[in-house]
Amino acid sequence: MPDASQKALDSVCDNCGASFVCGAAAGLASCWCMEKPPTGVAPEPGGRCYCPTCLAQRLSLPVDPTSRGA
Q1: Distance in angstroms (rounded) separating the CA atoms of residues 68 and 11
Q2: DSSP H stretches of helix in the chain
Q3: Is 70 within 8 Å of 58 (Cβ atoms)?
Q4: What is the pLDDT of residue 42?
Q5: I need a surface site. Which of 14, 19, 59, 65 has the fewest CB within 10 A?
Q6: The model's pTM
Q7: β-sheet bridge partners, residue 12
Q8: First to last CA, the chain
């Protein structure tokens, strides 16, 4: 079971609802997602982060150049 300090760092995936740590949301200097290659796709306005699994799935999808956001 995570301790209280870990729970305070947790984010919830916008896609699947999984709990994970987003370094940016937690106020850390960097986040695991910053190690991923740039996608050229802007996030949804007001959207939240994706967990590592969902982000990997989204990055593997072809990008529609006519769509706004991811």
Answers
A1: 24
A2: 4-9, 52-60
A3: yes
A4: 63
A5: 65
A6: 0.64
A7: 19
A8: 33
